[in-house]
Design goal:
- This protein is an alpha+beta fold.
- The protein has 2 domains: about 120 residues, 2-Layer Sandwich (D-amino Acid Aminotransferase, Chain A, domain 1); about 160 residues, D-amino Acid Aminotransferase, Chain A, domain 2, CATH 3.20.10.
- It contains 8 helices and 15 strands.
- Strand 7, helix 5 and strand 8 form a beta-alpha-beta unit.
- Helix 6 crosses helix 8.
- It is globular.
- The chain binds 4'-deoxy-4'-aminopyridoxal-5'-phosphate (PMP).
- The site of 4'-deoxy-4'-aminopyridoxal-5'-phosphate has 13 residues, from helix 6 and strand 13.
Length: about 280
């Protein structure tokens, strides 16, 4: 079935939505994006995604072409028009089309804004949550402003392929002996009863799911430490997990072929996943 997508103010059949070959998203990866989950036809943490979008645009001196209210309406209209029950909404904003030049185009060049849906039946019932996923460690070769959610995803894409070639699900990236994050998720270990995840900074994306999960963890009296952790700490941890808008909380049971803890899904990740899904459903819009 052909989807209805959104492009620059219009709802169009996906085959009719066309973007210029001069678009700076295409030529320079000069664009930012967000992915928002839909459960039961409602948006999870829309506010968090809209706020981070505004921040990414601001960091790149791009004008935000849409208000938060209109953005919410477009998300809801796409859910409605495409009959999405469980799934994802992808949003991308680029600096627009202009003759190729490294310098930003003149002020007033219209941004390109695109949104489309991806149906994912049973998004919250991912069978991997029962078994956990396996990851490998790879060098973090990305640029230095990973806190800006840009569309330059080639290295994360290469990381996913390295994981696939190694017969595992994903890769955690390493810089100076410390884990930064997963290719498309934030990384955590549980050690001595504490949840440890890298502190915020330019080195990682400030995950919307991360913020929610750490809040729920603290509200549930779990101890949280936001600091860099080493590869050796991962190998010696009791548990590990990742968070992202589409995976929620997903246990990690193996790192570079070494079982983490018992090698089975642990109680902290399981509990946090339950809380996150329940609370997110309750506050979905
Ligand atoms: N880190 C990276 C590098 C990511 O690409 C993502 C997901 N886009 C995340 C973390 C998780 O962010 P969120 O919880 O907002 O999906």
């Amino acid at each position: 079935m052909s989807r209805t997508v959104y492009l620059n103010g219009e709802y169009l059949p996906e085959s009719e939505a066309k973007v210029s070959i001069f678009d700076r998203g295409f030529l320079f990866a000069d664009g930012v994006y967000e992915v928002t989950s839909v459960l039961g036809g409602k948006l999870l943490d829309f506010d968090g995604h809209a706020t981070r979008l505004a921040r990414s645009l601001n960091e790149l001196e791009m004008t935000n072409p849409i208000t938060k209210e209109d953005l919410l309406e477009v998300h809801r209209e796409l859910v409605r028009r495409n009959g999405i029950d469980d799934g994802l909404i992808y949003l991308q904003i680029t600096r627009g089309a202009a003759d190729r030049d490294f310098a930003y185009p003149v002020e007033g060049t219209p941004a390109t804004i695109v949104l489309f849906t991806q149906a994912k039946t049973g998004l919250a019932d991912n069978p991997l949550a029962k078994t956990g996923i396996k990851v490998i460690g790879i060098e973090d070769l990305r640029w230095g402003r990973r806190d800006i959610k840009t569309v330059q995803l080639l290295y994360p894409s290469m990381g996913k392929m390295m994981a696939k070639a190694a017969g595992v699900h994903d890769a955690w990236m390493i810089e100076d002996g410390h884990i930064t994050e997963g290719t498309s998720n934030n990384a955590y270990i549980v050690t001595d009863g504490k949840i440890v995840t890298r502190h915020l900074g330019h080195e990682i994306l400030h995950g919307i799911t991360r913020a929610a999960v750490l809040r729920f963890a603290r509200e549930s009296q779990m101890e949280v430490e936001e600091r860099a952790f080493t590869v050796d700490e991962v190998k010696a941890a009791d548990e590990a997990f990742i968070t992202s808008a589409s995976m929620f909380v997903m246990p990690v049971v193996e790192f570079d072929g070494i079982a983490i803890g018992t090698g089975a899904v642990g109680p902290v990740a399981t509990r946090l996943r339950e809380i996150y899904i329940e609370e997110s459903r309750n506050s979905a819009v």
